[in-house]
């Protein structure tokens, strides 16, 4: 993240400390250089055959190294004191997908990046490969062996890792249950809203002392949503161009009463991973879009729907994985090069200062 000018040298620090040391050091260098010119190759101030210049250079390097170390320590302490977010994004990829090996196993140039973050390691190493001429980063949010259930996915580490390697846009596909009869298993929903019903998950990068309130009225990137809908329609997929996903804590599925209560709110689908993934992306000014694959009717849908099982969810999701993969790759190819959506400036007016 870029630091604002006001966050420069802190008022209680002494940024000019060490200048005297540098001046003294330069004075010593000047005197020693002059002396070494007289001493010649006799090595009066240095090792044999080097003269005083070798010693002088060593002193200068040590002084410069000391000053650099002090500056780095002061900068690091100031970041820690202010709770600032530090990121130096590389340029490995500009598009990311929270999806497993089913998306990247067929890429010829796939390679892994083993990253660490201030929030621990992501769910798995980041896999980067080329899709439609563009480098794309993949992280399986549940881990390579699905070892992270929804409530313990390292969401902050995953999103941070994407930002760290230069990703600007993230697609978060997921399996969902339907809360409405017209949203059928096998359908795709490009959600435009979410309702967070999770508890206890680390859901922000900003724990103070600099209070940050991002706007989250529209959780999903409008540009990415438009591209997703266009591509789905071009493929003749059964797609809903908007919908609200309610995110529950999991890992259990809903009771019938809970499911009915969600349905009467006119929410379309139910899931366990969209929060806090979407909001964390917004906090790092990443564009984020969801593509939901409907795997089943949730138990509260009108009629005595059979209770959902994990096996059923996996089967329907796998049956539609090919369509989803083609849809995602079509999105990657058609995303505009430049970003002009509100996601880019999410932090511009988000910081609260008394």
Overview of the structural elements:
The chain is of the alpha/beta class. The chain has 2 domains: 5-82; 95-345, Rossmann fold (3-Layer(aba) Sandwich), CATH 3.40.50.1580. 34% of the residues lie in helices and 14% in strands. The chain has a 7-stranded mixed β-sheet, with helices on both faces. Strands 2-3-4-1-5-12 form a 6-stranded mixed β-sheet, with helices on both faces. Helix 4 (155-164) runs parallel beside helix 7 (274-283) and helix 5 (222-234) packs across helix 9 (321-334). The longest helix has 32 residues, at 51-82. The model is unreliable at 1-51, 55-61 and 68-84 (pLDDT under 50).
What's the short story on this structure?
This protein is α/β, with parallel strands linked by helices.
Please render the helix and strand layout as text.
Elements lengths: L18 H21 L11 H32 L12 E3 L3 H4 L6 E3 L12 E6 L2 E5 L16 H10 L4 E3 L2 E5 L9 E2 L3 E5 L24 H13 L4 E2 L3 E5 L7 H8 L5 E3 L2 H10 L3 E3 L2 E6 L12 H10 L1 H14 L20
Parallel strand pairs: 1-4, 1-5, 5-12, 6-13, 7-9, 8-10, 10-11
Antiparallel strand pairs: 2-3, 3-4, 6-11, 7-13
Helix pairs in contact: 1-2, 4-7, 5-9
Name some characteristics of this structure.
seven-stranded mixed sheet; 9 helices; Rossmann fold; globular; disordered N terminus
